[in-house]
């Protein structure tokens, strides 16, 4: 009963002050789903510059990246926020996987070390977020436990969430499968790389974060 | 080489702290055992399990594979929903099953609503020497 009351009061205060501050929108998800590609797309669309580097090798983003003062406008709606791009959350990090992708051993070991720290930081930062965009690769199985754990933890913290099924430009993409895996959430299919369906994405972001 | 599966009944973790539960699971996994835990961890504990796993990764221990099976039946009529909620309130986190295996042995756990598939690594490349 007390926890329900606490949650209620937290939501009331959150709603009272949410519109006055510059909110933090976090981009979360497993590695290589296209989080940084989406962050770059948002920054290109509204600031005219990119945010971070992307790579086919997993764990390219190993540190929290923040882009402040992004303002997006549509009709009468306006949203001002800081965008937080986070390292991909994984349950395993093996330097040998990086070596298989062509990295020398020392570089692979260093990347693995940084990647593990990145996962820890990403989870710690969840408490600082006002809204979370979960980026899933629409060509992959959405039922992975990492996806369920990320989304479950966001829900447990009462943080509004928008799920993005990325890479819909690829033939194997299946946004419907993501929708059936997480039926209680809004799911938008996009291609961050090609900029496909970004209008619908921004509209959904206004609804979730506005 | 055979696989070792360790079953942990819920009573063994019931009175442990979150950290205690995580340590118990990880200690077994680091001994190359696949843990079948009766019930499930709290969502926050799952995230803590991932964090603690990341802290302990080295050249020998490369992480875990994790899956939680939890029956969440849909399309129930009103009375069955009430009954289901009552059972949930009674049993809490005892319901369901959590599978945690070492990443060096369990390559992938595939889960869809109706089945679970556990893929293991080729045993010949499982063991690594400390470098």
List keywords for this structure.
heterodimer, A: 210 residues, alpha/beta, Rossmann fold, 6-stranded mixed beta sheet, 6 strands, B: 131 residues, alpha+beta, 4-stranded mixed beta sheet, 4 helices
Structure description:
The complex is a heterodimer of chains A (210) and B (131). With 210 residues, chain A is an alpha/beta fold. Chain A has a single domain, classed as Rossmann fold, CATH 3.40.50. Chain A is built from 7 helices and 6 strands. In chain A, helix 6 links the parallel strand 5 (161-166) and strand 6. The relative contact order of chain A is 0.17. The longest helix of chain B is centred in the middle third of the chain and has 14 residues, at 43-56. With 131 residues, chain B is of the alpha+beta class. Chain B has one domain (4-125). In chain B, helix 2 packs across helix 3. Classes of the chains: A alpha/beta (210), B alpha+beta (131). Chains A and B meet through helix 4 and helix 5 of A and helix 3, strand 3 and strand 5 of B.
CATH fold assignment of chain A: Rossmann fold
Considering the protein shown, what is the CATH homologous superfamily of chain A? P-loop containing nucleotide triphosphate hydrolases
Largest interface here, residues on each chain?
A: A-B, 27 and 25 residues
* Tally of distinct domains of chain A: 1
Query: Distance between the terminal alpha carbons of chain B, to the nearest Å?
Result: 23 Å
- How much helix, percentage-wise, in residues of chain A? 40-55%
Low-confidence stretches of chain B: none
**CATH architecture group name of chain A:** 3-Layer(aba) Sandwich
Order of helices and strands of chain A: HEHEEHHEHEHEH
Provide the β-strand percentage band of chain B. 25-35%
Rg of chain A is 17 Å
Total E-strand runs of chain B: 6
How far is the first residue's CA from the last residue's CA of chain A?
29 Å
Q: In what order do the strands lie side by side in the largest sheet of chain B?
A: 1-2-4-3
> What is the mean pLDDT of chain A?
89
Strand order of the largest sheet of chain A: 2-3-1-4-5-6
Radius of gyration from the alpha-carbon trace of chain B, in angstroms: 16 Å
């Amino acid at each position: 009963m007390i926890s329900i009351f606490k949650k209620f009061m937290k939501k009331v205060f959150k709603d009272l002050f949410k519109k006055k501050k510059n909110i933090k929108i976090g981009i979360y998800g497993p590695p290589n789903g296209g989080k940084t590609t989406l962050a770059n797309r948002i920054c290109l669309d509204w600031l005219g510059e990119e945010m971070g580097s992307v790579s086919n090798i997993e764990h390219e983003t190993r540190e929290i990246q923040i882009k402040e003062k992004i303002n997006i406008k549509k009709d009468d709606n306006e949203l001002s926020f800081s965008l937080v791009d986070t390292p991909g959350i994984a349950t395993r990090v093996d330097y040998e996987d990086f070596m298989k992708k062509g990295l020398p051993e020392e570089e692979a070991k260093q990347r693995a070390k940084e990647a593990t720290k990145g996962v820890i930081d990403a989870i710690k930062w969840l408490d600082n977020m006002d809204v979370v965009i979960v980026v899933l690769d629409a060509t992959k199985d959405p039922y992975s436990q990492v996806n369920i754990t990320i989304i479950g933890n966001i829900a447990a913290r009462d943080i509004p969430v928008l799920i993005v099924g990325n890479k819909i430009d690829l033939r194997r993409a299946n946004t419907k499968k993501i929708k059936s895996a997480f039926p209680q959430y809004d799911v938008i299919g996009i291609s961050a790389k090609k900029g496909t369906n970004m209008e619908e994405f921004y509209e959904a972001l206004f609804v979730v974060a506005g | 080489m055979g696989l070792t599966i360790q079953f942990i009944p819920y009573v063994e973790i019931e009175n442990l702290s979150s950290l205690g539960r995580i340590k118990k699971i990880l200690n077994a996994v680091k001994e190359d055992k696949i843990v079948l835990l009766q019930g499930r961890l709290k969502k926050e504990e799952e995230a803590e399990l991932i964090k603690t796993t990341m802290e302990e990764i080295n050249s020998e221990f490369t992480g875990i594979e994790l899956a939680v099976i939890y029956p969440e039946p849909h399309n129930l009529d009103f009375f069955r929903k009430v009954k289901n909620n009552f059972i949930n309130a009674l049993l809490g986190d005892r319901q369901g099953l959590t599978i945690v295996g070492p990443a060096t042995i369990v390559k992938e756990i595939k889960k869809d609503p109706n089945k679970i598939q556990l893929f293991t690594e080729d045993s010949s490349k499982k063991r690594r020497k400390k470098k």
